[in-house]
Amino acid sequence: FRHRSCHVVPSPGSRPEGSSYAALSKPFKAAMEQFRSKLFAAALACPKAVNGRPLGCVAFAAVLRQLVAGVNDGRILNLH
User: Distance between CA atoms of 39 and 45, rounded to whole angstroms?
Assistant: First the structure.
């Protein structure tokens, strides 16, 4: 991933666990929709590959899960 960027997302509300999407705060939903659009535009503009193999939706989700788990566990991540 040669290009990285940040996207700030406001709080989803006081108790987001188990809440329906409609119950989440409007600023949170707007930020997530903006992030979703940004993510899809980037993915369509420049499809990703790992070890020369195209990275499909399921594989991309798996990579994201690994990255989130690494951040949550306090591991140092190398994205180069």
Answer: 10
